[in-house]
Amino acid sequence: MEEDEFIGEKTFQRCCAEFIKHSQQIGDSWEWRPSKDCSDGYMCKIHFQIKNEPVMSHPGTSTHGQTCLPMEEAFELPSDDCEVIEAPAASQVIKYEYHVLYSCSYQVPVLYFRASFLDGRPLTLKDIWEGVHEFYKTRLLQGPWDTITQQEHPILGQPFFVLHPCKTNEFMTPVLKNSRKINKNVNYITSWLSIVGPVVGLNLPLSYAKATSQDE
Amino acid sequence: MAEEPQSVFQLPPSSAAGGEGLPEVSPEITTPEPPSSAAVSPGTEEPAGDTKKKIDILLKAVGDTPIMKTKKWAVERTRTIQGLIDFIKKFLKLVASEQLFIYVNQSFAPSPDQEVGTLYECFGSDGKLVLHYCKSQAWG
Description:
A: 216 residues, alpha+beta, 8 helices, B: 140 residues, alpha/beta, five-stranded mixed beta sheet, 21% strand, globular
């Protein structure tokens, strides 16, 4: 009688390890950070992005190709082919930090994130909401507090934005059930992050999808 | 628009920006092989489809999601996942509060801006790209 699909903390850590292994192979810069007593920990990634430049509609720019690249490379993309050739002002660069933690109470992973300008000024919750991908914006604005809130990071004790985990099982369960039917090995973290990441500007390169099946 | 069952439907033109009129260029950075107009690209797993503007997509429902009567569609390579999701939602008459996810490899959700042509290059086989879709009441 399986209803919702939860994952235990050990499975969480194992999936993160596999995820990071692939990240290292493609230079995606995710890393594991153990907590002080090393009993648990979290995955972490930092990337930089130019604010309010959608990087679209420039012929010749492989915009869509960027989703297959580590985000750092997207920032450093040479401007040879771009029509707009100017360095972004420092004030326009935003540092994003994404953390994947395990929630014991929900028994699912949770995405924490924060963003700041290079001078250290943090983005506000309003800035964050405005930065959510257009595709998800309507739903977000219907119930923003259901979706992105601000909470204290369980390990670092600092304020982070959090993508609320209460609905995680709703969208993960069908995927897991379906793959179980065909005996397919699925990395929970990869699947989950591919779904939640884009809401807050984190796009996983497609190679993660292939990595999972190769592990079988 | 067409309601007669055919084996392959043409997806209506995308109204989203960038959907139409773009040159037939595969993003060079993402495909494992450089784009070529030759009939066969060395090393690709799937049969040559590089020169076709449209790719065949097979849509499969997951969970309690309604099954589309027409499962096989010809889609322009430049159509994004977002565009495809919007289309399926309209086709299935989902309400705005219902979210639809699309997966490749039955496990991975490409980001909304991802082009189906790229997905075809990476995950297509037997001349088509199989995508699973799943409805969810969860946050959008």
